[in-house]
Amino acid sequence: MLHDPNRIYVFDTTLRDGEQVPGSQLTTPEKLIIAEALETLGVDVIEAGFPISSPGDFNSVVEISKLVTNPTVCALTRANKGDIDCAAEALKYAKHPRIHTGIGSSDMHIKFKFNSTREAILERAVEAVKYAKGFVEDIEFYAEDAGRADNEYLARMIEAVIAAGATVVNIPDTNGYCLPEQYGAKIKYLKENVKNIDQAIISVHCHNDLGLATANSLAGLQNGARQVECTINGIGERAGNTSLEEIVMALKVHQSLDLHTAINTKQLYPLSGMVSRMMRMPVQANKAIVGRNAFAHSSGIHQDGVLKHRENYEIMNPEDVGIDQSEIILTARSGRHALKHHLVRLGYAIDRIDLDQVYQRFLELADAKKELKDDDLLQLMGAKAEENIRNGLAISTLQVTTGDQETPVATIKISHNGTDYAATATGNGPVSATIKAIEKITGKHIEIKEFNIHSIHGGSDDVSKVDMRVVYEDKSYMGYGFSTDIVRASANAYLDALNKFIELETVNY
Ligand SMILES: CC(=O)SCCNC(=O)CCNC(=O)[C@H](O)C(C)(C)COP(=O)(O)OP(=O)(O)OC[C@H]1O[C@@H](n2cnc3c(N)ncnc32)[C@H](O)[C@@H]1OP(=O)(O)O
Ligand SMILES: CC(C)C(=O)C(=O)O
């Protein structure tokens, strides 16, 4: 029945089981956006809803059926005629419709949910499949709570529903009860003991109550299941479902399993963000594959390892899941390699930096601030330029007079190797006077190509950040400066750029 015996069909139930999460209900237009993205992702089946549950859900199944082309559109029902009639009606525009019907299979459910017997429930299961078969060809049967069901009874039920026309048989671990070995053994048992099992695809549908949903689904696939039911970000009833991104990437990373899906993995991260925003379900930072920290390294030994060879600490390429690149986060646990990496990225000539000196001051700031961003580093480098950058130029004093009735004049003292060098210049404003005074000291013609002033937090007493791009001998250099005084911030930015290229022996004092 399957063309490729190693192909795993991905059945996405974000819009049905995922949407059962309290507070995550979606409108039909929102569901359509997600359904379209799921089609682009390459899922094989979209479980679009439970049509009998509400007019809104019915309408969503209708609209998704009209919208998508390639994936099968599936609608959930209980094992009764009313639900099945309603699902069939909702699916009437689907190019590939599937009805997903079923009933409890564990003694717990049979006794305490249905107050019934094994035989009576088996009969209802068969009747439901036969009835659904009257509407569509593709019928999936779910044996709810199969994780806790007796295997021998479960096998009888599965054999009977396949004989009645089920094309897919879903073996849900509804309560996330099983251990991977137990769940794998259950699928193996069905493969070996259901006579007509080759006439249907076995599907795994695992919940995450013990954090084992992905492991259990994998165990099921390794034992012969060929469809996996999952949700984006693993959302779903209680602790959630198998996470689509985890199962897909586990199969991709472990090529030796020789099982593959048709998922375009580069869509995983963008879709995770879309679902999280629309369903108001934040993704935990350490969530595998799509969490904020999944490709972020913050401790020095790991950062050094990643910078030397990414695979030292990454088993996947972030680009494969749609994340641009791994991140090296600067914290007090970072080492010199990570610090150096960021300084080089920001344009500092590392051979001119006293790294040990900068590192000590970096640690003090990181202990206080937890995580350092680019602006923190730039400020750190600008604040004590002379100590940070070997033979760097730094402002000792700056005196500026300006006003609308007088020509702006700047007198600046720049220190170098413990000696101050002074110059005075006029300009058409206080910044231009200051830059000209610095030019007099260096004796270089340096063109300023870009010059931006930002306030960091807002407010007139704020710290200003200046970024400046200068060109010298046909090369561009960025400089950054910080100060509560915008003239001084501008001078700091200019000197920061100069410190990246100017040869100090040639400075014209
Ligand atoms: C494991 C899962 O995730 S299953 C899917 C769960 N999702 C949902 O329940 C969301 C949608 N549900 C709903 O909108 C509503 O529960 C409805 C419309 C389905 C039913 O609403 P109500 O008719 O008011 O019944 P209610 O939900 O209170 O109780 C469920 C009834 O369905 C029966 N039932 C439960 N599962 C099945 C089944 N698979 N097949 C047949 N009957 C079932 C229960 O025994 C109970 O019947 P009873 O009234 O004879 O005791
Ligand atoms: C309806 C079935 C497939 C289900 O969601 C479960 O058993 O968890």
From TrEMBL:
Pathway: Amino-acid biosynthesis; L-leucine biosynthesis; L-leucine from 3-methyl-2-oxobutanoate: step 1/4. GO terms for biological process: L-leucine biosynthetic process. It catalyses: 3-methyl-2-oxobutanoate + acetyl-CoA + H2O = (2S)-2-isopropylmalate + CoA + H(+). CDD domains: DRE_TIM_IPMS. InterPro entries: 2-IPM_HCS-like, 2-isopropylmalate_synth_dimer, AIPM/Hcit_synth_CS, Aldolase_TIM, LeuA/HCS_post-cat, LeuA_allosteric_dom_sf, LeuA_bact_synth, PYR_CT. One of its GO terms (cellular component) is cytoplasm. PROSITE patterns: AIPM_HOMOCIT_SYNTH_1, AIPM_HOMOCIT_SYNTH_2, PYR_CT. The keyword Cytoplasm applies. It holds the Pfam family LeuA_dimer. The keyword Chloroplast does not apply. Residues 394-509 are annotated as: Regulatory domain. Mn(2+) binds at D17, H205, H207, N241. Keywords: Amino-acid biosynthesis, Branched-chain amino acid biosynthesis, Cytoplasm, Leucine biosynthesis, Manganese, Metal-binding, Transferase. Residues 8-269 form the Pyruvate carboxyltransferase domain. GO terms for molecular function: 2-isopropylmalate synthase activity; acetyl-CoA C-acetyltransferase activity; manganese ion binding. Its cofactor is Mn(2+). Its EC number is 2.3.3.13. Homodimer. Catalyzes the condensation of the acetyl group of acetyl-CoA with 3-methyl-2-oxobutanoate (2-ketoisovalerate) to form 3-carboxy-3-hydroxy-4-methylpentanoate (2-isopropylmalate). Belongs to the alpha-IPM synthase/homocitrate synthase family. LeuA type 1 subfamily. This is 2-isopropylmalate synthase. It comes from Parapedobacter pyrenivorans.
